[in-house]
Design a protein that fits this description.
The chain has 223 residues and is mainly α. It has one domain. The protein contains eight helices and two strands.
Length: 223
C-alpha cells in the first residue's frame, strides 16, 4: 500500500473525529446519532446482564438522547460498568470493521446493526417513544445501504462508529454533577470507590479506543 493511501486513511480518521466533535455540540440535529450512541450504551448493559445470568426487562429511549435499560439478575458490578465500556467497544468495532471490509461488503454491517435494533425493539421495547426512536435508527442504517456510492456509505458508517466512541468519552463527564444517580453512583454504591474514579476509568478507556483507531490508521503502511 502506498504512502498516499496511508495518509488518506489517517486524514479521514482525523477529519471524521474533528467533524464528530464539532457536530456533537450542534443542538437537535445530533439527536439521531445520540440515539444510536445511547442505544449501544443501553444494550451493553442488557447484554452484560444476560451474559452474567440475568435478563433484560425493557429498554427505554428518550428524544433528548437519554435512555435506561431495566435488568433483572446478573452481576450488578459488570452490568453497571458495561454501559460506557460497551459503547466504546461498539464504536471501535463499527469503525474498524467498516474500515477493513471492502466497500461493497460494508453495507452488511448496516443491515446487521439494523437487525440488532429491530430484535431489541421486538423483545424489549415498551413505550411509543422508544418504538419511534428505534424505527428512526433502523431507517438511518437502511438509508446507508441505499446510498449508491459504497465509498460514501462506508464513510458514514465510520462516522457513526467514531461518533459513538466520542459520545462514550464525553458522556461519563456529565456524571460529575453532584447528583447521586447514574452508572458511576451505582458502582460507588457497589464498591465504595468514588464516582470520579469510575468516570476517569471510562474516560481513559475511551481515549485508549480513540488512540487505537488512530494508530491503526497509521499502521496500514505495513500492509
Amino acid at each position: 500500500m502506498n504512502i498516499k493511501k496511508i495518509n488518506s486513511d489517517t486524514i479521514i480518521f482525523i477529519a471524521l473525529f474533528a467533524f464528530a466533535f464539532v457536530f456533537s455540540y450542534i443542538p437537535f440535529i445530533t439527536w439521531p446519532f445520540d440515539w444510536i450512541e445511547t442505544f449501544f450504551h443501553e444494550i451493553s448493559h442488557g447484554f452484560a446482564a444476560i451474559l452474567t445470568g440475568g435478563s433484560i426487562n425493557r429498554i427505554e429511549l428518550e428524544i433528548s438522547g437519554a435512555g435506561t435499560c431495566y435488568t433483572t439478575g446478573g452481576v450488578r458490578f459488570i452490568v453497571a460498568f458495561a454501559g460506557y465500556f460497551g459503547a466504546v467497544i461498539w464504536g471501535m468495532l463499527i469503525y474498524e470493521i467498516s474500515d477493513e471490509l471492502h466497500p461493497n461488503l460494508a453495507n452488511y454491517i448496516s443491515l446487521i446493526l439494523a437487525a440488532i435494533i429491530v430484535m431489541s425493539l421486538l423483545l424489549w421495547g415498551s413505550d411509543p417513544v422508544t418504538y419511534i426512536i428505534s424505527i428512526a435508527m433502523v431507517i438511518i442504517f437502511l438509508m446507508i445501504v441505499k446510498i449508491k456510492s459504497h465509498i460514501y456509505s462506508k464513510i458514514l458508517l465510520k462516522f457513526i462508529g467514531i461518533y459513538t466512541l466520542l459520545g462514550a468519552i464525553k458522556s461519563p463527564l456529565y456524571l460529575i454533577d453532584g447528583r447521586e444517580k447514574g452508572d458511576g453512583n451505582s458502582l460507588h454504591e457497589i464498591t465504595g470507590i468514588p464516582e470520579i474514579i469510575w468516570v476517569s476509568i471510562w474516560f481513559s478507556i475511551g481515549i485508549l479506543g480513540l488512540y487505537y483507531l488512530w494508530k491503526s490508521s497509521r499502521q496500514k503502511i505495513d500492509i
